[in-house]
Amino acid sequence: xxxxxxxxxxxxxxxxxxxxxxxxxxxxxxxxxxxxxxxxxxxxxxxxxxxxxxxxxxxxxxxxxxxxxxxxxxxxxxxxxxxxxxxxxxxxxxxxxxxxxxxxxxxxxxxxxxxxxxxxxxxxxxxxxxxxxxxxxxxxxxxxxxxxxxxxxxxxxxxxxxxxxxxxxxxxxxxxxxxxxxxxxxxxxxxxxxxxxxxxxxxxxxxxxxxxxxxxxxxxxxxxxxxxxxxxxxxxxxxxxxxxxxxxxxxxxxxxxxxxxxxxxxxxxxxxxxxxxxxxxxxxxxxxxxxxxxxxxxxxxxxxxxxxxxxxxxxxxxxxxxxxxxxxxxxxxxxxxxxxxxxxxxxxxxxxxxxxxxxxxxxxxxxxxxxxxxxxxxxxxxxxxxxxxxxxxxxxxxxxxxxxxxxxxxxxxxxxxxxxxxxxxxxxxxxxxxxxxxxxxxxxxxxxxxxxxxxxxxxxxxxxxxxxxxxxxxxxxxxxxxxxxxxxxxxxxxxxxxxxxxxxxxxxxxxxxxxxxxxxxxxxxxxxxxxxxxxxxxxxxxxxxxxxxxxxxx
Amino acid sequence: xxxxxxxxxxxxxxxxxxxxxxxxxxxxxxxxxxxxxxxxxxxxxxxxxxxxxxxxxxxxxxxxxxxxxxxxxxxxxxxxxxxxxxxxxxxxxxxxxxxxxxxxxxxxxxxxxxxxxxxxxxxxxxxxxxxxxxxxxxxxxxxxxxxxxxxxxxxxxxxxxxxxxxxxxxxxxxxxxxxxxxxxxxxxxxxxxxxxxxxxxxxxxxxxxxxxxxxxxxxxxxxxxxxxxxxxxxxxxxxxxxxxxxxxxxxxxxxxxxxxxxxxxxxxxxxxxxxxxxxxxxxxxxxxxxxxxxxxxxxxxxxxxxxxxxxxxxxxxxxxxxxxxxxxxxxxxxxxxxxxxxxxx
Lengths: 554, 345
Description:
The structure holds 2 protein chains of 2 kinds.
Chain A: H1 23-27, H2 32-60, H3 71-107, H4 115-138, H5 151-155, H6 160-187, H7 200-232, H8 245-279, H9 286-299, H10 315-342, H11 352-375, H12 377-383, H13 387-417, H14 423-450, H15 464-494, E1 550-551
Chain B: H1 16-47, E1 62-63, H2 64-93, E2 100-107, E3 110-115, E4 120-122, E5 124-128, E6 132-139, E7 144-148, E8 153-157, E9 163-168, E10 173-179, E11 192-197, H3 199-208, H4 215-225, H5 228-232, E12 251-253, E13 259-261, H6 264-272, H7 295-307
Parallel strand pairs in B: 2-6, 5-11
Antiparallel strand pairs in B: 2-3, 3-4, 6-9, 7-8, 7-10, 10-11, 12-13
Helix pairs in contact in B: 1-2, 4-7
């Protein structure tokens, strides 16, 4: 079925945005699309707070001396940058906004399986967020986002328990969202929407949801133990009471490493959508890309020990974790190769979302490959806790997760708001962000290899050149982020009115009006086509000598 | 501290180049794959750009052969890195038997260092070039991390236990010492230097320094004042308590039939929490010394116990200047240098 061929009913003037009015209609909504927008507003708020902290870090590090902030303030700033960005922006980012909006639309459902739980999850997120903001305003927290004991339990004089409570509560919103997605994908697919006809975004959201449900309880337990220990000295982590401070690190990373996949898997899903749809080609090796998401989710739970290579963990345990860390890189590599192969003989447009997707592949490749440096035991001894690590995980979290999020936001913006963003500005800002990002974090790899430790308020002068480059890049990156913030808001009122299917794509979410009606579809769709079916399957091409063993798209 | 290649840190230990070799190998692989992927991407993006808005390319079938190819090749490459890096890691964390021991205690926000000959230093570590140095480390408060980039060595310093690492400096000079595990307010001020000297200069430095008692001698003093002597005997020969002479590194049977290798961690635990692992044949009569001995003093007691003659342990420190039969190079520094099998790690 060609993208241009399907018929849509004439758009109705009523859509989910104007179906009902008033604050109450938003705050008590059970519409997954409105909840997605509630999330979008809140995570954007947290993103800019986290961004301000990043700005302060980069300002301080312009010069080797600690002259802009006091060391106690600086320690709080980097801690809070991490906590806000990870727990209140990156983890909910794609699942809670794009996922919430698109999971029902992509499977042809009216809503998620549990609309009230969906709303509840946003309120829980908000309560967690408010408590955390309170903790920051009351005095902040200075333990690093990693809360390592015994510093966090015994030595820190900051708002550890309040912040922990915020994160603890916020975790439940993540669990509820994951639960909702899993049940929805299992039970609410439209007739004909088989598992292997689902867009790959749904596979990655499904895999992410598994991690959310299985991993988040562990961080909840860990934070609870931390609070008990801090308040009443129960002796779980304190060696003076017979506890083990390293135990905390095991528990913490058992969640926090999989949490990296909560951040990056949805982004990979978005990129699969963008690559296929903006090249009008079915994804090469669909099943491999789909199952690699599940493989990442499963293996992701078995690699936490690679954060403990220098903690006196047994060298044999280190070897096992190192091996598994190399293994978890393979499914990511499979994705990158398949995305690249998809572009072969395709029809590539240069729209903003595609620029983000291409940027993602490049940056994620660097982020993933530098992850191998840290999985390699002997090398990790030198590199761990240096700026190399900082650069590596920003390539994954910003270059990966954030690029995918921005790409997805541009891609689905016409569907969400019914308006187009300005394409020229979109491309321009994508370019600015790409350049700014690389200028910020590439020098940090070098500084890290040269030995600059992370979380340093002041540093030896020989590292200054790298920090100046990095701060310059960060200011470009910051400006690059402001541009979309401005034009997205602008476009909601002044943007060109979007067609129902502005990109001419076959996916279900494009087979209804923009913005959609509250029920998403007038009639429950019946799916008779494969994912990314731009041309009839009979026309399928087999490449060269690899044709003997076929994975037929049908 | 940069070498003549401005993008590579100074290299000053026997292990540095081994770590760097892996780094360059991996950098080559990274560069290759990044250029490969981005090269192909750029080529495709230009070659297959959309030429008309109505253009619909043919769908493509997947290929198991290609999938296998790009699963197996990266896996094999990553296994070469895995194997190589693991073998160097074993060297990094297995101190050689003939290393000179130096005690390190981290504390917010300073490094306290004591040589086995007694010299104390703060935020500085003087070592002779070309000699293997083993650091036995702990902390008085939070987790710190002893990181010397020029030696490519780093290990956490964890409260409640001893961690070890070792190095052999290959050139003289002053090198950065960083705390690499965030430890609170003045974390970035918890820095110092490792000063690598010619052996002769190092000897001068040793003799020029106010000579406090060696850790073993101080430990012997403590052994008397804390009353250990009444049960374990003046020379650790035992009595109501188990024998200490020659204990370190030896397998010891426990009440309940288990065995434990009496390493530094075990001895520390047995001083602080004697009931945890009772030696076969002895009752739970020893009081705990938790809160009564500092980390420094624990290390001194340990040094004294190690210095007791007998068994696998060699004489050391001021206890007895008996010669060692080990084939290790004789350090020139001190007549009373420690030279005995490492006590396991």
